[in-house]
Amino acid sequence: MIESIGTKLTSLCEGILPFYLSEADAKGYPYVVYRQDVQTFRTKDGVYKYTAESRIRVYSKDADEAMEKAEAIKAALDANTDTAFVIRQVQETKDCLEDVWRIDVVYFVKQTS
Question: Which CATH class name applies to 3-112?
């Protein structure tokens, strides 16, 4: 069930950009790398929810393209209607290093079992 948070995020954003977990195997720009820190909550009866801090990082050689793709990803995640997942944006940062724009969008994701 833990992997279903990443599966949900990537399926909601399908068609926007290639998504890679942790490291990119991309041949060019733009692309997205995501990472998540998952926490499991249990009772004596078993797991009742998972939460994750999911960091989605857009890379592009063009600032406008990076912003456009980040906005498309945010719109796709904000449009989630699956009640088993609560997806909320908590942070966004932008920077440029060696002519590559990077936009980090951090989401809190809660999945109930």
Answer: alpha beta
